[in-house]
Give the backbone structure.
Amino acid sequence: MQTDVTTDFGGRTAFVTGGGSGIGRAAALLFARHGARVAVVELDAAGATETVHLIRAAGGDAEFLAADLARESEVRQAVERCVARFGGLDCAFNNAGICPPAGPFHELDGAEWERVIAVDLSAVFYCMKHQIRHMLAHGGGAIVNTSSGAGVTPAPDARGRARVRTPADPRQRDLPRRDRHADDAREHRRAPGHRTRAARHAADRAHG
């Protein structure tokens, strides 16, 4: 992740999903380094707690908000708790995602597919829905959604995630723009390359 950001996030609140490790943790730390108050939204309590500790140890302000993002009620509660804790919501990084076990697509278990759909696709919709609502109530904001580089250049055996995250991109990109009530809530997306932990695991499995 590029670290030469010069934007001042002082006085702003960032909502980061999947902030307990990897790209999510790096983003949370970067937000905090540039002055943002950070809501670390995770199911992994140990990882999220460590991220919060790192931010506070560096003089920042952060809070762990436990949520299963596949459940809309928990997403709504997490956004509401973020707003109550920090007084608003200015930016969000919807980064949380999962990968099914590497292997041929036709061998993917139905339950695994449903879980990937829930976490990698539906959860992004739930997050954006409730984030935009609060952003508009507080003067606007910006949202970044993690996509998948495997949707552009498929990784070996990265079977479920590329098929879920990539088709969602046009919809999640255009949704706020089609909605005249969401003019002040901007959405962006990023597609990590194959250096993520999940991509490395898939590649290792494919090459023995």
